[in-house]
Design a protein that fits this description.
There is one protein chain. The chain has a five-stranded antiparallel beta sheet, with helices on both faces. Strands 6-9 form a two-stranded antiparallel sheet. With about 350 residues, it is an alpha+beta fold. A hairpin with a 7-residue loop joins strand 1 and strand 2 (about 45-50). The chain has helices spanning about 15-25, 75-85, 100-105, 130-150, 165-180, 190-200, 245-255, 260-265, 280-290, 300-320, 330, 335-350; strands at about 35-40, 45-50, 55-60, 95-100, 110, 210, 220, 230-235, 240. The protein folds into two domains: about 15-110, 2-Layer Sandwich (Phosphorylase Kinase, domain 1); about 130-350, Aminoglycoside phosphotransferase (APH), C-terminal lobe (Aminoglycoside 3'-phosphotransferase, Chain: A, domain 2). The termini are far apart. The model has no long low-confidence stretch (mean pLDDT about 95). Helix 4 packs across helix 9, helix 5 runs parallel beside helix 10 and helix 10 (about 300-320) runs antiparallel to helix 12 (about 335-350). The longest helix is centred in the C-terminal third of the chain and has 24 residues, at about 300-320.
């Protein structure tokens, strides 16, 4: 049931003849040889499993062909893990960061592997969740996000992560600009969605928080001996200091329920349709109850989450469209971009904001 690393894809290999000697004096337990596999999931940074001696580590590096300003910053992601882990031990342990192009030709960092179960599109073979267990797991996931949002950012010295003032405005402007730059001839224009998000912006939150910005089931690790326990949270590349409701909106953009329409089921990437899983509204209600925050205008944050997800999909699809990657999964993302526009417009039509 654990995530399995496979042979490295052509064109994405690592030179272990350089990497192993470089790490030998920096990480305890590195042997004379090193094996490299690649985790096939994910659409952004490339992730590898390194095995040497008794050590299992994970290397993260930017994708080939990516040229997105402010994204894929390995140094920032490493610093987030190092700074946040004392206050949120679900972060993997960071081990080494390297930005010297003479080593591998690209920046990368290495962290200790958090070994366990990661939920992908369907439940892994051998894992059965009763409706009660599915509900409980959802509650634990929600409560862990609340825990992250409750960290006292300034006391923890984590305010280097971002500037919460004007956060929503910067997000709307930034993601709108990214979409326009990444748009291909076969993609919808999203202008109605972007205009609505610009015109309906809420005021700055009075409760800014550390936000993960990609908090969802396939970025958490479950204990392989007790899958009801969450033991790790992965992929901190977009973490920042901002409005926590934006974080929740981003999370729920991925949350496809059992009774969502067929086109939404077609872009589902996690088993959130399983009997017993909480609905989006139940997650919203639980978050409001646990935090005491007003979520009466949450439609805005959910709509933004759908739009942001579409931009991410379009940016990745653009790399495929230009021939910068041959990963066939990326070619299918144009369908997600279209479905997400329809979902966002549906939110706008029904909301009373």
């Amino acid at each position: 049931m654990e995530d399995i690393a496979i042979n490295v894809r052509n064109g994405e290999e690592l030179d272990t003849g350089i990497l192993a000697p470089y790490l030998k004096g920096k990480i305890d337990g590195i042997g004379d040889t090193m094996s490299v596999k690649q985790f096939p999931g994910g659409y952004s940074n490339l992730t590898y499993l390194l095995t040497s001696g008794d050590s299992e580590m994970v290397l993260r590096r930017p994708p080939k062909g990516a040229n997105i300003k402010g994204a894929h910053d390995m140094g920032r992601e490493y610093r987030i893990l190092a700074s946040l882990r004392p206050f949120f031990p679900y972060c993997p342990e960071p081990l080494v960061y390297c930005e010297d192009p003479a080593v591998m030709g690209f920046p990368f960092y290495i962290m200790r592997r958090v070994s366990g179960i990661i939920l992908r599109k369907e439940l892994p073979a051998g894992l059965v969740l009763t409706p009660n267990a599915a509900r409980s797991l959802c509650e634990k996931l929600s409560d862990l996000q609340v825990k992250l949002h409750s960290i006292d950012v300034k006391s923890a010295g984590l305010d280097f992560l971002g500037k919460p003032e004007g956060y929503v405005q910067r997000q709307v402007e930034g993601w709108s600009s990214r979409y326009r730059k990444a748009r291909t001839d076969d993609a919808p224009d999203y202008e109605a969605v972007m205009t609505w998000l610009k015109d309906k912006q809420p005021t700055d939150t009075a409760f800014p928080a550390i936000i993960h910005n990609d908090f969802k089931f396939d970025n958490v690790v479950l204990d392989k001996d007790n899958p009801m326990n969450i033991i790790g949270v992965l992929d901190w590349e977009m973490a920042t200091y901002g409005d926590p409701l934006m974080d929740l909106g981003n999370s729920l953009a991925y949350w496809i329920e059992k009774h969502d329409p067929p086109e939404m089921q077609g872009i589902r990437v996690m088993p959130t349709h399983t009997d017993g899983m909480l609905t989006r509204q139940e997650l919203i209600d639980r978050y409001a109850e646990k935090t005491g925050r007003d979520l009466s205008k949450f439609d805005y944050y959910y709509c933004f989450g759908l739009f942001r997800l579409a931009v991410i999909a379009q940016q990745i699809y653009n790399r495929y469209y230009q021939g910068l990657t041959k990963d066939k999964r990326f070619g299918m993302l144009i369908f997600a971009v279209r479905v997400l526009e329809k979902a966002a417009l549906n939110v706008i039509e029904k909301t009373k904001i």
